From TrEMBL:
This is MoaD/ThiS family protein. It comes from the Bacteria. Signal peptide: none annotated. It comes from Streptomyces justiciae. Pfam families: ThiS. InterPro entries: Beta-grasp_dom_sf, Mopterin_synth/thiamin_S_b, ThiS/MoaD-like.
Length: 84
């Protein structure tokens, strides 16, 4: 199973209490399930509003269960940002 780094930004970082963590996951859906399991509460709520980058590429509207993760890859968790 691929090991990926999940990086949190802004409100997601505040809710997680860390800037990044390692997870074992084959898909974005599996990684996010693991995140929610480790951080129930505020981060789970923040994730509902987030967009995601996988190795720098936007996930967009693709189903999270269809987004495959590569070993050593990075998931960026991006909450909505204020301003322009």
């Amino acid at each position: 199973m691929p090991k990926v780094t999940v990086r949190y930004w802004a409100a997601a970082k505040a809710a997680a209490g860390v800037a990044e963590e390692a997870y074992d996951a084959d898909t974005l859906a599996e990684a996010l399930d693991a995140v929610r399991g480790r951080h129930p509460g505020e981060l789970t709520r923040v994730l509902q509003r987030c967009s995601f980058l996988i190795d720098g590429d936007p996930v967009g509207t693709r189903g999270h269960e269809t987004v495959r993760l590569a070993d050593g890859g990075t998931v960026e968790v991006l909450p909505p940002f204020a301003g322009g």
